[in-house]
């Protein structure tokens, strides 16, 4: 009986050792796929590091995808903006050419036709797509942003101030988003004369003073700014007060289309220095020009593509530019107008220029027309510059993410990969031990039941 117990113990001990050797060999063979970590029990410390590194790698991969998509989006946008600025440069040249009083009606009609083709191309570029998305539509990127009307409407005629005029008349009128007054509304008085209305304070100026008279004031004092009580001929009530009853939005849509062409303004109060003593008895009508209108169906919201973890940066992470950024705003849709931003202000001003060309208004083109053309080009160039700066930032981040990915990959390799040379030696050792165990067991363990009976 004692022999049998002893033999059983010996058999059990041998089997356990043999199984342990087989288990160690199997564990080593698992590492043949290149990884030494298949479960937390393999190495709890390294496995926890491996999990952290893997999370970092997944985040890095997602950020790289975001950045690459953003760069692609911005390159598409930039290419469209480059073409836009080139067209606007040509448009400026045509405006200068049209202002030449030697042009006959056929010349002006030809220039107007070329201008319309250029505006239509700008509208087409405004509808540039990246995949299924319109890159200039804001967050409404699945909606075609720009469209031009087929019919002509009556649009308000604005007096666009040049740099010197803007500097002078911005004095007491309140500043717009750009920090200066850039436009006034053109009016025709019941006396047949043209006047300009500052919609921010309701003051009315004669056409001659806005275009020429202010220069006499500046000649006497180079630092002079507008003094409405001295320079204006009158003031319309309800404009520019704390709680104004009169706003541009009461008379015009944000595209500049007049709501009621028959409306008349009256009740002007003469100012101290008025050169029109009977200003109070005059009525005024808004000047208009018949033209097509471009509308914008997108919004002014940014599309963000996060490029790194941490706090979100809506401005820095924005990869798109919108209609309002490309085509600015004007007197009909700026912050003071009471209207929402139209998103197509400069396009509609270009259509005004084109309408004035076909109307043979050389005087307007030589002053307002050229100022408008310059402003249109400058607005788009400014937007393109900002987009280019953001694109450079994303390209720098892309390089940084690539470098980080290499480091993370290296960390993962160091913590999880198999040391092939060491593994080969361990496998040979375990295989040798296993084979010796089999050989030894065959000699020591009882061969049959007869051995127990002896």
UniProtKB/TrEMBL annotation:
Upper lineage: Bacteria, Bacillati, Bacillota, Negativicutes, Selenomonadales
Taxonomic source organism: Selenomonas caprae
Positions of the Flagellin N-terminal domain: 6-132
Protein name, entry field: Flagellar hook-associated protein 3
Record-level GO cellular component terms: bacterial-type flagellum hook
Gene expressing this chain: flgL
UniProt-listed GO biological process terms: bacterial-type flagellum-dependent cell motility
Keywords in alphabetical order: Cell projection, Cilium, Flagellum
GO molecular function: structural molecule activity
Domain of life, per lineage: Bacteria
InterPro entries: Flagell_FlgL, Flagellin, Flagellin_N
Transmembrane segments: none
């Amino acid at each position: 009986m004692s022999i049998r117990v002893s033999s059983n113990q010996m058999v059990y001990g041998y089997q356990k050792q043999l199984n342990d050797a087989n288990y160690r060999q199997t564990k080593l063979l698992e590492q043949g796929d290149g990884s030494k970590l298949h479960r937390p029990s393999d190495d709890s410390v390294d496995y926890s590091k491996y999990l952290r590194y893997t999370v970092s790698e997944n985040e890095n991969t997602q950020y790289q995808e975001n950045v690459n998509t953003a760069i692609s989006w911005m390159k598409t946008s930039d290419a469209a903006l480059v073409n836009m600025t080139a067209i606007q440069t040509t448009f400026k040249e045509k405006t200068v050419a049209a202002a030449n009083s030697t042009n006959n009606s056929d010349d002006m009609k030809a220039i107007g036709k070329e201008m319309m083709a250029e505006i239509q191309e700008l509208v087409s570029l405004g509808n540039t797509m990246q995949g299924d998305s319109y890159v200039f539509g804001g967050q409404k990127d699945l909606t075609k942003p720009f469209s031009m009307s087929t019919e002509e409407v009556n649009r308000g005629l604005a007096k666009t101030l040049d740099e010197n005029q803007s500097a002078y008349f911005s004095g007491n009128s309140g500043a717009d988003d750009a920090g200066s007054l850039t436009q006034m509304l053109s009016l025709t008085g019941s006396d047949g004369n043209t006047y300009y209305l500052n919609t921010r304070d309701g003051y009315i100026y004669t056409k001659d003073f806005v275009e020429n008279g202010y220069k006499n004031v500046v000649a006497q004092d180079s630092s002079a700014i507008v003094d409405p009580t001295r320079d204006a001929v009158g003031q319309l009530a309800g404009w520019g007060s704390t709680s104004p009853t009169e706003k541009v939005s009461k008379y015009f849509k944000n595209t500049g289309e007049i709501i009621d062409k028959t409306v008349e303004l009256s009740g002007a109060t003469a100012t101290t220095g008025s050169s029109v003593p009977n200003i109070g008895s005059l009525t005024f009508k808004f000047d208009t020009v018949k033209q097509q209108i471009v509308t914008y169906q997108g919004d002014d919201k940014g599309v963000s593509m996060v490029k790194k973890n941490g706090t979100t940066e809506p401005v820095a992470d924005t990869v798109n530019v919108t209609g309002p950024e490309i085509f600015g705003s004007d007197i009909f849709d700026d912050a003071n107008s009471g209207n929402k931003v139209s998103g197509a202000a400069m396009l509609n001003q270009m259509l005004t220029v084109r309408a004035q060309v076909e109307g043979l208004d050389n005087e307007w083109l030589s002053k307002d027309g050229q100022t408008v053309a310059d402003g249109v080009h400058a607005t788009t160039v400014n937007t393109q510059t900002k987009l280019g700066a953001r694109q450079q930032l994303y390209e720098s981040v892309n390089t940084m993410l690539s470098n980080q990915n290499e480091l993370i990959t290296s960390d993962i390799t160091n913590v999880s990969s198999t040391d092939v040379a060491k593994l080969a030696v361990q496998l040979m050792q375990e295989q040798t031990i296993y084979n010796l165990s089999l050989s030894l067991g065959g000699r020591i363990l009882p061969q049959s039941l007869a051995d127990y009976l002896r």
